Amino acid sequence: MTAPRSPVPTAPVAPVAAPPVPVPRVPAVAPPEAPASRRKPLRSRLGPYLLLVPALVPIVVGLGYPLVRQFVISFQEFGLAQQFGRPAEWVGLQNYVELLGDSYVWGVIARSIAFCLVNAALTMVVGVALAVLMTKVGRAARITLQVGMLLAWGTPVLATMTVWQWLFDSQYGVVNWLLAEPLGMESMRYHSWLIEPLSFYGVATVIVVWMSVPFVVFTVYAGLLQVPEECMEAAQLDGANAWQRLWNLAIPMVKPVLFVVALLQIIWDLRVFTQIYVLQRAGAPTRETHLLGTYIYSLAKEFSMAGAMATIMLVITLGLTTFYIRRMLRQEEV
């Protein structure tokens, strides 16, 4: 009897992969264009620009026409005779040559720029200091400061000038009395502040700064309120004192506000007129105390010369503001 034969092991057979089925390529189809009915009509696209027309028309009529008229007159010989119908004679650059060739005009320009920069700097320093003070004091003191600055800001210019003239009056002024009695400066008892140009500009600086500070205070104070308290507390925990937190943290955060306010102050202080004119009428020497605004007013009988001088003033204003704006943009890029 024979033994059963053992099965012979066989190797596993790998499955045969099926050939890939080709997938038909679907051609890309461009999205259907929006029907013409879905496009915004021309009226709706021009709507935002049409809304600007009511604001642009008064600006163009109220500012554009006088500016163009002034520019044209500056190239003509235009005086009182032309006001009664005599045709104006075209003289080209003669008015500009005559003005810029006068050393006195250059003195007025230099005084105006110096007065503008000094007043703008003092206004910014005092205004920022008071704004910071308002963030530190209590509610009662803050409200008192706000009310006082609102009164100083809201008082009409001529009323303010009347008060300041009495304060600096040579006979009955409080300033002279304080300098003579409590401080013992007997030579200042009857001192006339408006006779000498230097003291005249000192009085004018006090008045201009007094009337400009409230705007700076309220604007910078509003900016300081937007500084996050978490940043200030974190800096305090890191060991920064009050001055370091203000200078290195708060001031950089409100720098755009400071730039805009300083730019406005430069423009306003360069074209100051009312304060200087009223002080001149109070007894100051006119020729030695002229700034650009009052000097242009003194040329009122010669319209062509006044127009040329006003154009020069406009160019100076644009030059100062352009230089300042370029510096501002450079610092923002950094």
TrEMBL record:
Gene3D superfamilies xref list: MetI-like (1.10.3720.10)
Residue span, ABC transmembrane type-1 domain: 109-324
Key words, A-Z: Cell membrane, Membrane, Transmembrane, Transmembrane helix, Transport
Domain of life: Bacteria
Biological processes per GO annotation: transmembrane transport
Membrane spanning residue stretches: 46-68, 104-133, 145-167, 198-225, 246-268, 303-325
Topology in the lipid bilayer: Multi-pass membrane protein
Chloroplast listed as a keyword: no
Compartments in which it is found: Cell membrane
Region of interest: Disordered: 1-22
GO cellular component: plasma membrane
Protein family: Belongs to the binding-protein-dependent transport system permease family.
Name of the protein in question: Carbohydrate ABC transporter membrane protein 1, CUT1 family
Source organism per UniProt: Blastococcus haudaquaticus
Classification lineage: Bacteria, Bacillati, Actinomycetota, Actinomycetes, Geodermatophilales
